[in-house]
Design a protein that fits this description.
The chain is an alpha+beta fold. It folds into 3 domains: 1-120; 186-284, Ankyrin repeat-containing domain (Serine Threonine Protein Phosphatase 5, Tetratricopeptide repeat, Alpha Horseshoe), CATH 1.25.40; 286-409, Ankyrin repeat-containing domain (Serine Threonine Protein Phosphatase 5, Tetratricopeptide repeat, Alpha Horseshoe). Helices cover 43% and strands 9% of the residues. The chain has helices at 2-6, 33-46, 123-137, 140-148, 163-169, 173-181, 196-202, 206-214, 229-236, 239-247, 261-268, 272-280, 287-294, 300-308, 314-324, 331-341, 357-364, 367-375, 397-408; strands at residues 26-27, 57-65, 80-88, 91-101, 107-112. It has a 5-stranded mixed β-sheet with strand order 1-2-3-4-5, with helices on both faces. A hairpin with a 2-residue loop joins strand 3 and strand 4. The chain is elongated.
Length: 409
């Protein structure tokens, strides 16, 4: 029977006498003896320790990422990862082994090898590196074991990422709580300025954000200009997270002057509910946020909210229109253009190539926009820097006919 042959993974802690010293090894694995032997040979051939050393003694293996179906009666159908600590002729080295079931019914083995020529890390550094990876995976059992062995919760990698930040960046609430109880610095920041609270906000994780705020995380940490917590939340579109940050005292307009980075971020990603929320909570509806919409022609309804907010200018609305019309025949851009044309714009304003909105609309195939611009009084004879008029670049006959009629008026 399959369950008997595989023993339901009950033999996870294998005393592999052929691979490790049974008196000292701590072995946890889903791999068959043949797969273990394959991984051992790969380490011998390509490991960090070169010839003449040809001895590999496994001291410990730990499953750091379980496949979703690992606890069924069947073989895992998805990849899993294990962390191996091995002794190679007296040198301790840690490897990441990934086992990937393939379509042939077998399993491919991939060994992640430390950088060749690099100095071997000391045992505490190895523990710390393992703690960071375990935190990013949310593996509570491994985190507890590494902490018991002396791993430092305040350690960080070359980018300044601590295990606590790693747990938060992956949305692992339980791991973050565990690390916080063991002395993690709640406001530690990476070199780029990102903290645990930043990642929790950016990923739209309200429970994690609530836990961090309750534990005393600094909601004003973005005032140095490197990160903006509310902008991170705005990009995710999670209004609950934004509300938690504002209730904790985060400023709604944390950009230069009264510009709201959060509003720009929400507009960029077309987060209409977030835009309304921010406007209702005092964010200034400015032309920079409106322009952000044109980068992807996102959510014409967001444009209506921003324009109705009253702080956009005719120049800003026109710049947004010019940017939107650079795309050829896009329904979302056409819808955004019609929202903007319902308000005053500067018809003679041009882009860096001397194109008016009418020239761009003609070239892009926006017949209805061309018609609206002509009705507003756009000049059909205006030329760009190449000397071309809207008629010269007309994308189709309908647009050309509209422009000829416009010239006769």
């Amino acid at each position: 029977m399959l369950s008997l042959r595989l023993a339901q993974y009950a033999v996870l802690f294998l005393a592999l006498s052929w691979l490790a010293d049974p008196a000292s090894a701590q072995i946890e694995t889903l791999a068959t003896p043949q797969l273990l032997k394959t991984a051992e040979e790969m380490i011998k051939l390509n490991g960090a320790v070169r010839a003449p050393c040809n001895t590999v003694r496994v001291l410990r293996t730990e499953i750091v990422k379980w496949p979703a179906d690992a606890r069924t009666d069947l073989l895992p159908l998805k990849a899993w990862k294990e962390c191996w600590t091995v002794d190679q002729c007296g040198t301790g080295t840690t490897y990441r082994i990934e086992f990937k079931p393939n379509l042939r019914g077998g399993v491919d083995v991939e060994v992640r090898i430390p950088g060749l020529g690099a100095a071997e890390p000391s045992p505490p550094a190895t523990l710390d590196a393992n703690l960071l990876e375990a935190a990013e995976l949310g593996n509570l059992r491994l985190i507890e074991r590494l902490l018991a062995e002396g791993a430092d919760t305040k350690s960080s990698n070359e980018n300044g990422r601590t295990p606590f930040i790693g747990a938060a960046s992956s949305g692992h609430l339980g791991a973050a709580r565990l690390l916080l109880r063991h002395g993690s610095e709640i406001d530690a920041r990476e070199r780029g300025g990102a903290s645990a609270l930043y990642y929790a906000s950016a990923t739209g994780a309200p429970e994690l954000v609530r836990m961090l705020l309750d534990a005393g995380a600094n909601v004003h940490q973005g005032q140095d200009g490197r990160v903006d917590l509310l902008a991170a939340a705005a990009g995710s579109g999670n209004v609950e997270v934004a509300r938690l940050l504002l209730d904790a005292g985060a400023p709604v307009d944390s950009g230069s002057g009264r510009l709201s980075k959060a509003l720009i971020e929400a507009a960029t990603y077309g987060q209409s509910e977030m835009v309304v929320f921010l406007l209702d909570h005092g964010a200034a509806a400015h032309s920079e946020a409106l322009y952000a919409l044109s980068l992807g022609c996102n959510s014409p309804e967001v444009a209506r909210f921003l324009v109705a907010g009253g702080s956009t200018t005719a120049k800003g609305r026109t710049q947004t229109l010019l940017n939107a019309l650079r795309r050829d025949s896009d329904e979302d851009c056409a819808a955004l253009a019609h929202v903007l044309l319902a308000w005053d714009i500067e018809l003679d304003q041009v882009d860096t190539h001397g194109n008016t909105a009418l020239i761009l609309a003609s070239r892009g195939g926006y017949a209805d926009v061309v018609q609206s611009l002509l009705k507003k009084g756009a000049e059909p004879n205006a030329r760009n820097r190449d000397g071309k008029t809207a008629l010269d670049v007309a994308a189709n006959k309908r647009i050309a006919d509209l422009l000829r009629k416009g010239k006769k008026r």
